């Protein structure tokens, strides 16, 4: 049973308001080490230099979408096993299936309730304390 406070998180979303909402939700759940970036390119550089346990990424972003980001993370020998939860504005089956094929750990459809995000995180890490 991991303590949420021990899990390092990277939130990646091109919308400032969404990053702030996710950060608040994670803080309410007991997470302390929360970083965020507006895009996957910056996030990759940050994660490679200071690893995290959990990546929460939007799907629809400019430059590199969430699937490309997931694929890049999974292909990296150092960060490839990092837990990856994707946020998507649509429950598009094709996107969900592609994400599953690429090894996403879970996904959350936006808008989401804090309890839904907690449940998706706990499905991967076990019950949070």
Which stretches are poorly predicted, pLDDT < 50 over at least 5 residues?
A: none
Ends distance: 7 Å
Percent strand: 15-25%
Q: Helix/strand-derived class?
A: alpha/beta
Write the layout of secondary structure elements.
Layout: E1 9-12, H1 16-28, E2 34-37, H2 40-49, E3 54-58, H3 66-75, E4 83-88, H4 93-102, E5 106-109, H5 114-125
Parallel strand pairs: 1-2, 1-3, 3-4, 4-5
Helix pairs in contact: 3-4
Give structural notes:
The chain has 5 helices and 5 strands. It has helices spanning 16-28, 40-49, 66-75, 93-102, 114-125, and strands at 9-12, 34-37, 54-58, 83-88, 106-109. β3, α3 (66-75) and β4 form a beta-alpha-beta unit. The longest helix has 13 residues, at 16-28. The radius of gyration is 13 Å and the shape is globular. The N and C termini lie close together (7 Å).
What's the gist of this structure?
With 129 residues, the chain is α/β, with parallel strands linked by helices. 43% of the residues lie in helices and 18% in strands.
Brief descriptors of the model:
129 residues; alpha/beta; 5 helices
């Amino acid at each position: 049973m991991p303590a949420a406070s021990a899990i390092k998180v990277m939130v990646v979303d091109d919308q400032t308001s969404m990053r702030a909402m996710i950060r608040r939700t994670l803080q309410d759940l007991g997470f302390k080490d929360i970083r965020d970036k507006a895009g996957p390119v910056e996030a990759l550089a940050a994660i490679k230099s200071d690893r995290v346990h959990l990546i929460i990424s939007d799907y629809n972003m400019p430059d590199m979408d969430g699937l490309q980001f997931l694929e890049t993370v999974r292909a990296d020998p150092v960060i490839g096993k990092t837990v990856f939860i994707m946020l998507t504005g649509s429950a598009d089956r094709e996107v969900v299936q592609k994400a599953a094929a690429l090894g996403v750990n879970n996904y959350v459809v936006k808008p989401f309730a804090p309890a839904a995000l907690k449940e998706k995180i706990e499905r991967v890490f076990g019950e949070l304390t």
